[in-house]
Amino acid sequence: MIDLIREAADFLKGRIRRTPVEYSPGLSDSLGVPVWLKLESLQLTGSFKIRGALFAISKLRRDVITCSAGNHGKAVAYAAREASVRAVICVPRSVDRAKLEGMQKLGADVRISAFDGYDDTQDWALEMASREGLPFLSPFDDDFVMAANGGTLAMEVLEDASDARAFVLPVGGGGLAAGFAVWAKHALNDSKIIGCQHELSPALRLSLVAGRAITRLPAAETFAGGVEGGIGARTFAVLQPLVDRVALVSEGEIIFAVRWMVEHHQYLIEPTAAVTVAACLSGKIGRLSAPAAVMVCGRNVSSETVRKILCAS
């Protein structure tokens, strides 16, 4: 995958933003080591997902069907428009309103499933892809997506936060974490990969215990829809030998982390992106002996969800 990551990085030059890393005094004090935030929340379409969508669609060069909790769908809608192809995007009925409207405004054919969870919605999308004779583009379980979403991010982080040796990453389906881990472990022998998940949907933790990918989980009620559901079979095969720790956080800790980012960094991020910050603030990432980089993966959140989070008691 190393060569594919390099290819993705070359392809994406000039097509996406080089998002900044920002030193976090608060997290540094809390963890006792220097900590930087990789602000992929400032990326085009509001998340890191644009990387994988642009690269994968450049390879497919045709109409696609995909499934998304929101950010991947918005990125695919953007990439499809740029490539002049059609994108059919299947989303759970629990999708955040801002993400849904973002996809629709970009011209995608968005279809809302009868399910709250990602896994059931993906089954529906796969059946639709088979019926309509279109390729299904996975939001995570795809080599092009892993290389671009995670691998190119790792390249930037290792250049811009060169002292970092611990990398705190969100894990849903695992595409970002898998690609990131491949490059980080290739470039730095002493790097540590810490995956962060919702305690109600701990697919990576369960997969490590079982020794096989847990690709389906019951739907979890959470604001952090991007880390809900099972892990990919391909992504787990990549991550299994590379991940060093898994931190599980609660819904309350995620909500607190969203508020903390507003108060301490003046950034409004989506709950999925706050999973990594929550793991740091709660101490659940464990003791760190070296500087760390924390992924902040997206900002797409509706005003309704913001009100619920910021006004909750």
Give the overall silhouette. Answer: globular
Q: Can you write the helix and strand succession as a string?
A: HEHEHEHEHEHEHEHEHHEHHEH
Biggest sheet layout: 6 strands, mixed
CATH architecture designation of the largest domain: 3-Layer(aba) Sandwich
Cα Rg? 18 Å
Q: What is the strand content? A: 5-15%
Q: Share of helix among residues?
A: 40-55%
Number of discrete domains: 2
Termini, distance in Å?
46 Å
How many H/I helical runs? 13
Q: Would you report the number of β strands?
A: 10
How would you portray this structure in words?
The strands form 2 sheets. A 6-stranded mixed beta sheet has the order 1-2-10-7-8-9, sandwiched between helices. A 4-stranded parallel beta sheet has the order 5-4-3-6, sandwiched between helices. With 313 residues, the chain is an alpha/beta fold. The chain has helices at residues 2-12, 25-31, 49-60, 71-83, 97-105, 118-132, 143-160, 175-187, 203-210, 233-239, 251-265, 274-281, 303-311, and strands at residues 21-23, 35-39, 64-67, 87-91, 109-112, 136-137, 166-170, 192-198, 245-249, 292-296. It has 2 domains: 2-47 and 142-311, Rossmann fold (3-Layer(aba) Sandwich); 49-137, Rossmann fold (3-Layer(aba) Sandwich). Helix 4 (71-83) runs parallel beside helix 5. It is 46% helix and 14% strand. The model has no long low-confidence stretch (mean pLDDT 96).
What's the helix and strand layout?
Layout: H1 2-12, E1 21-23, H2 25-31, E2 35-39, H3 49-60, E3 64-67, H4 71-83, E4 87-91, H5 97-105, E5 109-112, H6 118-132, E6 136-137, H7 143-160, E7 166-170, H8 175-187, E8 192-198, H9 203-210, H10 233-239, E9 245-249, H11 251-265, H12 274-281, E10 292-296, H13 303-311
Parallel strand pairs: 2-10, 3-4, 3-6, 4-5, 7-8, 7-10, 8-9
Antiparallel strand pairs: 1-2
